[in-house]
Amino acid sequence: MTRTEHSPATPEPGCTVLVTGAGGPAGVSIVRSLLAVPDVTVLASDMDAFASGLYLVPAGRRHLVRPGLAPDFVDHLLALCRDTGVDVLFPTVDVELVPVARRRDEFAAIGVAVASPSLDTLEHTLDKYLLAQRCAGPDLPVPRTELLGVAYDWEYPVIVKPRSGSGSRGVHLVEDEAALRALGTDASQIVQENLPGEEYSVDVLADLDGRVLAAVPRSRLRVDSGVSVAGRTIKDDELQRTATAVAARVGLTTVANVQLRRRADGTAALLEVNPRFPGAMPLTIAAGVDMPRLCLDMVLGRPLPASLPFRELANVRYLEDVFLDPAEILPDLAPSDVLDLA
Ligand SMILES: Nc1ncnc2c1ncn2[C@@H]1O[C@H](COP(=O)(O)OP(=O)(O)O)[C@@H](O)[C@H]1O
Ligand SMILES: [Mg+2]
Fold first, then answer.
1. Which of 333, 335, 330, 341 is nearest to 62 (CA)?
2. Cα 228 to ligand 1 centroid, rounded to whole Å
3. Ligand 1 mean position to 8 CA, how many Å?
4. Cβ(96)–Cβ(122) under 8 Å?
5. How many A from CA of 28 to the centre of ligand 1?
6. What is the model's pLDDT at position 342?
7. Mean pLDDT calculated for residue range 254-268
8. Which residues form the ATP-grasp domain (predicted)?
């Protein structure tokens, strides 16, 4: 790729990447994957000085940034990328995705490729109503989805949940029409056909033209606070086909996590799409598809393997300590930086 106005702050050959949200499981997994690539300098950022992933990279490559919701978050991120000579940015925090994607051109202008889906893909996945509308049709199993207060001719029970939510917050089962009518009208909530069966997460990697290169289904065997702490990869043509078709329909480039859940008849239908690297990425990497590394090669225009097979593998997880000199803990940002929220 072309580097334009970088000051050569880091003398190492190869490329420099910045991983945001280094305290989250997705950030940690990307940092660890890319630290294993010989010619890559990994920088890590987070808004929290105690974010563990910061301390997986050498001192001098750890950066505290504004909260993703701060109005000048992207200005600061652009300045950080420019000052440290970043070639590729991996945003991993939900609230950062749209603000960063809106200004992708400004990142490109300073030689930074952003390894996250397009603004159009983000807008049609972060909103579960728009996602259902985009994917509905005879060729994709999409549960019926309406805005709350629009229709009552359902087979009950139904699911009611926020259009834009995460971590299962606000999801509930509504038993009958009277209970649904009692909820009134609210365009920020959706009503959805209940999918009573098994649930799967499929990690999908698509190239910059939207061609799906790999789809790795996982089942989450144990979830703790929304994070999968035990799981397994599954070879299943139907899950791979459906997730691939969903990714194509939303125009996915780079990486997303497509969640499917079985209907009573066993068909795997679309639950939602998280348009970012998932926290459970280490399992997909260990199963044979190192999506952070492949994604990096892809945005750098390097050749990718012709096929990306994976194997069936299970995992359990544990907490791990990073020990450091107390003096290494980054000083907090000035309070005005942190409180300066929109
Ligand atoms: N239509 C549905 N049928 C059955 N369960 C659902 C449905 N929608 C959501 N759920 C349950 O709620 C959880 C969270 O819903 P999801 O759509 O994944 O939103 P998010 O993870 O963003 O909160 C799912 O993992 C599933 O257990
Ligand atoms: Mg979900």
1. 330
2. 14
3. 46
4. no
5. 25
6. 37
7. 98
8. 104-300
Whether the CB-CB separation of 141 and 241 falls below 8 Å is answered with no
Residue 278 has pLDDT above 50, yes or no: yes
CA distances from 219 to 14, 60, 151, 216, 253 (A): 36, 38, 32, 10, 23
Looking at residue 52, the DSSP 8-state letter turns out to be G
Q: Which residues line ligand 1 (CB under 6 A)?
A: 143, 159, 161, 165-169, 171, 192-195, 199, 259, 261, 271-272
* Mean pLDDT of the region 190-215: 97
pLDDT level of residue 103 (50, 70, 90 thresholds): very high
| pLDDT tens per residue across span 215-239 | 999 999 998 877 789 999 999 999 9
Domains of the chain in sequence order: 15-116+322-339 (3.40.50.20), 144-193 (3.30.1490), 196-316 (3.30.470.20)
The strands making up 199-206's β-sheet, listed across from edge to edge, are 268-274, 254-262, 199-206, 212-224, 227-233, 314-316
CA of 305 relative to ligand 2 center, distance in Å: 30
> Counting Cβ atoms within 10 Å, is residue 1 exposed (0-12), middle (13-18) or buried (19+)?
middle
Q: Please choose, from the candidates 28, 265, 295, the residue with its C-alpha nearest in 3D space to the C-alpha of residue 143.
A: 265
- Kindly indicate the confidence band of residue 93, based on its pLDDT and cuts at 50, 70 and 90: very high
pLDDT of residue 116: 98
Residue of 131, 171, 258, 265 to mutate, ligand 1, most atoms within 8 A of C-beta:
171
| Least distant ligand from the CA of 172 | 1
**Which tokens in the block code for residue 304?**
């990718």
- Mean of pLDDT values over 107-134: 98
